[in-house]
Each structure stands twice: as structure tokens, then as C-alpha cells.
Amino acid sequence: MDTSTDPVPPTQNGQDKDKEESKTTEETIDGVPEVKDEDLSDDDRQLKQDLELLVDRLEDADTSLHRPALEALRTHIRSSTSSMTSVPKPLKFLRPHFARIKAIHANISDPENKKFAADVASLMAMTFDDDSRECLQYRFLGSNEALASWGHEYVKYGPHCLSGAHVQAAGLNPTNPPSLSPPHPHLLRHLQAEVSAEYKVRVTAEPPAAVDDLIVLVEEIVPYFLQHNGEPDACDLLMEVDRLDLLERFVDENGHQRVCLYLLSCVPYVAEPEDQVLMETALKVYLKYKQWPQAMQMALKLNVTETIRGVFKQCDSKLMRRQLAFMLGRQQYYFDVEEELDGIEDDDDELEKLRDLMANTFLNESFLALGRELDIIEAKSPDDVYKTTADGAAGVANSARANLASTYVNGFVNAGFGMDKLILGSEEGAHWMYRNKDRGIMAAAASLGLVLLWDVDGGLTRIDPYIESDNEYIKAGALLAVGLVNSTVRNEHEPALALLQDYITDKKSIYQVGAIQGLGLAYAGTAHEYVTELLMPVLESTDNNMEVLATTALALGQIHAGTANGDVSEAIVQCMLLQEGPKLLKETYARFLPLALGLIYLGKQQDAEVVLATLETLEGPFGKVAQIVVEACAYTGTANVLKVQKMLHVCSEHFDTSKEGAEKDDLHQAYAVVAISMIVMGEEVSVEMALRTMQHLLQYGEPVIRRAVPVAMALMCASNPDLAVLDILSKLSHDADAETAYNAIMAMGIVGAGTNHARIADLLRHLAQYYSKDADVLFIVRTAQGLLYTGKGSITVSPVHTERTLVSPPAVAGLLTFLLGLLDAKNVFLKDGHCMMYSLALAMYPRILSTFDEELNPLNISVRVGQAVDVVGQAGKPKTITGFTTNNTPVLLGYGERAQLATEEYKAITPILEGFVIVQKAAEDTQTA
């Protein structure tokens, strides 16, 4: 029913008097109803007549009346305190006379009076919603008084904003208008919007016009915003006029945290290179106020070597430098401390301590302390994980494939604890290895590296006897185990290099594979020059088979992850160019060559453009795969919308699958699907949008795309068991297409890795029963079960850390190696390439919060752990966690959780309570407060 002619209901007793005052006739000015005298109260009618009289005086020939009239107008406007549910009354009553006031301004000859008239016109221009930018125009012609002196009249809301809804949207209270001193920060937005619009017009003109006067005004607006909790507005304005460099000058100590938090939240939503500018600005602000942990966080996000080391060197606190070393260790970023601090730090003991912290030597000891705290030290067997009596799938328990699955499960479950029940904890440990076949024996020996993870000194001693074995598979596995033990941990004596370098050029390719893969794991992210020199000739040799070449390239990619090393990338490109194009797709391991190249440019964005141009010379499907993988790696974790759209466009292509070889033509689409998840990794909003996109791809995509969707979901939600994702993966685990089912099952393992998630455990047990007669699928299910209980539920495989702001390049390298292997699971994990699964060790890290005193002794203190709350743009000191529980450190932190100290006795020297944190005694006055 049309209600446009319905009568207005009568005003109820007690309602706001302003509702009666807002009754209007049908006459309007620019679409806004004009108020008639009969609709006004006596006071308002008198105010309207007084204002109109003042306007009349301004048109009088007697110029002596002009100055008093202008002063009176200015006084009326300034003293207006009407309800903010409408335009303030003086502006409302003067609005019909705007054209007269503009004419008056043009005709006034006295310079001072002309400026005062311009002030009035500037204020009145706010009530007109057009593109004339007269508010700004008359501001420049006015008396240039301080913006704050005009009170709340400088408001953004135009004639269409007469309802309280717009005021409430701005955070204002309609029944309690802000006082004149100070005015509310949101009320400068009208002028702010016109400054932004005028700036765009001027810089896009031909030729570009000067903007100096605009910048002067910006320099007046920004401090005002920063002083009145308007940090987001200040940042937005500076971004719109391309002058973020001014922010460092105006920001103060009280608001710099909120400013930087807002800048960081904007990074995923701006185009390059603006994202770099935002991070560099935040870095400068943090350095200005000596916020070293946050500055290091920004430096690591920028991923520029000189910047990271520069922050470390500038830090003037010995205790804080130790905390920075902990942060670098978590990022797996290592450099020569003595060389960088030469002339700054002359205490050899302190230098050694910093090197140990950065090298993660505390990792094993702290992890075992966590295990004792949680009472999970005792080793578990694969049967404890399978619960075979419950799933009834023990029928194939003694097959070689089932034993291989148990080997991996044993390694993942007992990772880092130094003891298991199959090999080290059994008198017949050596016999277990012989229950496997060929590469299965190698995997069993290598699993020792997982069990002894991070324990370099003790672990190598226990692995050494297996290196001397006469069985080539046991020996090759032991070589790989050496690399596994050393992954994430650096040792100044470099035992991995000493033990493995002699086997790099061995005649037996199995030894080469074990040693080279081990070196890649041991030195991932270090850009170690000597190891690089050892591996480069292997890559350039024409005598090696594709497995050795791919393993070498992958090791080099892991070692130089995120370094953009031109020499190494050139060698990998040359290796690809020397191979025959069609042959590459038939080679199982050749698919790892593009990944190896991409890892070098991990997160480097534009630095990869030259390599991408070179890859265009590679014809056919393999060339497309290489370009997509390298580009996706270059933009990993950036949430670049344009790159996501590009990958979606690739997925939208259709190929005729009826002709021979057509299944290879669309292979690059599978990588494009995974590329989307690589790009959005770590950014919550982008991940949520990408997950919705994945559901569309499942519905409308080709089979090759559907197979890749579970892999992409696993990458986005590693160790983050999202229920919506689990529902999709559960359905796909019964898919008619075997490869889709493989990927979905393994993805469930990655999504739940290290969480002991009960729902996933139940799903996998049912799948074990469902697929009990299919050895291949059962192997995948068992491996997924092992992943679910990684480190008995205390180890994450998510590369995202530091409150989900940083992505560790070596961890991404390990996770991608594992997941991209799933795109050809039949030929990699279900055949001889299953040892590639051990690359996941690079992403494995305790999900721990452990506290230390100033002397780096473990300290048990009370902390609250709860779900992290987004506080971007909120003024004051809002709560950053919700739904918390209180425990003593060390404690486990789940994905999306944040911790706070629950005691006033200590204070943390970093606001980022994650991983290893140094705390110190709080001052007595602080405790009292």
C-alpha cells in the first residue's frame, strides 16, 4: 500500500521538542524542506528574523553597518547549541540566503570585512551537498582563523543528513551535542572531504596545479584530529593527499600506537607500492618513540635485510635486544650478530647469548618444559592415535603401506619429544625399519629427525649409528634426519653441513636426495653462501636425474626463501630451460622446479617481474604453471586484490578435454586455485572472501580445479579448524574422484594439525573404517590422523604468527612443498616421493607462550588467554581479548588467541605476548596504581 499520503501521527507527550520544530511545508531549497514561520517557536522565529535583518544590513549602502552585522552573524553561528539531529538553527535559517551572502562577499570592498564574509559563506556552504567545494574555496578567502574556533558547525553532514541516524553513525549522541570546546573530531570531515576532492582535481589536471595551500590546511587539520581521538581520519586525509611523511611530525606519544595499528590494518587494502609506504611510515613512528618490538615487527613485514638489521642495531637496550632476538628466531631470520654489532656491543657473553636466542637454541628445552607442564611427555604409539579397536580398520595392519603410514604418524605425534615407541623406545627399533620397503625404510630412518626435532646436540648422537648403516635406504634416511633435527635451529658448529656435504655428489642418487633435502631443511632461510656453492654445481650438472635436480632446486629455494637472490634464480631458470618442455609435465618431480624458483621471491612482489618476463619464453602448460607459481609466491601474504582477480580469471578459462593430452593443458588452473590462498594468507577478511570463492569454484569449476580447492583451503586454514571449512572437506572426502578425496582428507589433517580437534578426529576415524579396504586412501587417512596430533597437540604448522601479522618465509616454504605435492598425490606421496612430507618440519613450531626473567631463566607467571579482539580505530584502551581463561606459563596459544599478563607484579617488555617473552618486575608505584 502506498503510504506517501498518510497523515503524520500526532506528537506524543514527552517527545523531543525538535520533532515539532522540524515540521515543514512542501517548498524546498535544493531538495531540503524550507522552514516556515508558522512552524517555529517564538524564540526560533525571533532568531530567524534577527538573522535575516543582519543579512539585510550587509546589503545596506552604509558600510559602517557591515562589520557589526558580520560579527553578530559569526557570534550567532558560534554560539549555536541546537540538537545535532538537524543542521544547526543559524545555518538552517540562513540557508535560503546563501546566494545573497555570496553576492555580498563579492561586493564588499573592505579587506577585513571581505574575509569575515568569506568565513560565514564557508560555514554556510556545508549545508549544500554538491561538488562546488565552496566550503574550501571560501575558507581560503577567509580570515584563516583556527578551525577549532568554529565549533561543531564545520560538519560533514549536508542537507540530506537531517536525521539522527547519520549523527549516530558518526559516533555522536543526538541528545547530548558536543560542547564548543573542544569540538568533536568527526565534525571537521566536511572540510576534509573537500580538501581530498580538490587535491585529486589538481594533481590530475594538465598540467598539474600547485597544492601547497591545500597542504598548509592539511597541516592544520591533522593535528586537530590526532588530539581528539581522530587518528583514522588523520591517516586517511594524509593518504588521500599523498603526504604520509607528515604523520611522523604530528603524532604524539599517547596516540602513536593507535595510528600505527590503523596504518597496519590498511596495508592489505591499498595497491603497491602504497602498502610499503604505510609500513615504512609505521616503522618510523615506532622508531621515533623507541617501540622496538613493534618496529621489528614492521621491519620483518617489510622483509628488507638492511631495515631488519638496522632496527636491531639501533636498539639501545640490552634486555630489549634479547627480546628482538627471540622475535627474529620465531621468524627464522638469522644473521651474524658479532658482525652487525661490531663496535656497539663488546660483551662477548652477551653476543653469544643473542646468537643463541636468534638461533632458537631455547626451543627444545622450552618445548619439553611445556610438555611436562601439560603432562604429555610420555611417548605415544600409532595405535594410540588410530584407536583401531574403535574404527575396525586393523585388517591391513601389517602391510608395507600401513607400516609406512605408522612411520609418519609416529614421527608427527612424537615430534620434538625425543622419544617414541616404534624405534627409539623399542628394543626392536631397527627391525621396524625393515618392515617397510625401499623408500619406506628411508622414511622410517628419517622419522628419527622428527622425533628428535630441535635437539641438535642430543639428537645427532642418536642418529649417528644409522648413518653408518650398510643399508642404503637407512643411511639415506639418516642423512635426511640430520637435516630435520637442525631445521629451525642454528648451531655455530654447523654439524649438518659437516655430516652431509660429502654426500651431495655421491654416485648413489638416493644419498644425494637425502643429503640435499636435509641441507635444505637445516639451512632454510639462512641464505648460507657455502651451502649454496656446494649445491649450485649439482643443479647445473646434466648427469643428474630429475629427482636430484628438483630436490637441489627446492633446497636452494628453501635456503634463499624471500631473499630474491638473482644468481640462484638464474640457475633454476636455466635448469628449466634446458629440459624438454613436454617432458617436464611427465616428470613427477619437475613440478617442484617452479616452486623452488618462487620461494626465492617469496613476498618480494615487484622484484619478481624480471624472472616472470623470462618465464614467458617457456611454452606450453609448464610455462603457465611456472608463471603462476612464481607470481603467487611473490605476492604471498599481501592480500593483493588485483592478483587474486588475475588468478580467478585463469580459473574461469575452459579447455576441450576430449582431445588427447588435454588434461595437461588445464594443469595451471590447479596452481591458480592454490595461488589465491597463497596471496590472501594471514589476512582475515581476504581469507573469508577467498573461502566463499572456493565454494563457487567447487560448484562450477572443472575437475582439475575441484581437486585443488581442498589444498587451497588447507593453506588458508593451517592449524585453524574452521567449522565451515571442515564441513566442505568432510563432504569432499567421499568424492567420487579419488584425487579430490585424497586432497580433502589430507587437508583435514593440515587444518587440524597440532590441535587434537575432536570433530576432525571423529571424522578421520570414520574415514579409516570407510576406506579400510583401500590401502592408498587408508594411507592418506592415517597420515592425516598423525598430522592432527602433531606434537601431541602442542605444535602448529601455521606460518602466520605475531598476532597474525607476520608470515615466516621458511615456514611457508615447508608448507607449500607439502601442499603442492598433493596436487600430484598419486605420483608423489603414494609412490617414492613421500619423504617430501618431511618438509612440513619447517612450518612446525610450538604454539607456546613461555616467559623468562631478565637473566633468561624460565619464569612461571599467571596469564589470561582468550580470543583476540580487533581494536583498530577504537579510542582509549579497549579490551583486546574476550572469553579468556587464566593459566600459568608456559601455556598453549590457539589460532586467533591472544594473551595478557594476569599479575601486576611483572610487566612484559613487549606488547606482543607470543612465543618467548621476557618480563621484569614492575615498579612498586605501578603495582599500587
TrEMBL record:
Gene3D superfamilies, sorted: Leucine-rich Repeat Variant
Listed Basic and acidic residues bias regions: 15-26
Coiled coil, from the record: none
A Pfam entry, by short name: RPN1_C
Name this polypeptide is given: 26S proteasome regulatory subunit RPN1
Residue intervals of the RPN1 N-terminal domain: 51-156, 188-388
Organism per entry: Monosiga brevicollis (Choanoflagellate)
GO CC annotation: nucleus; proteasome regulatory particle, base subcomplex; proteasome storage granule
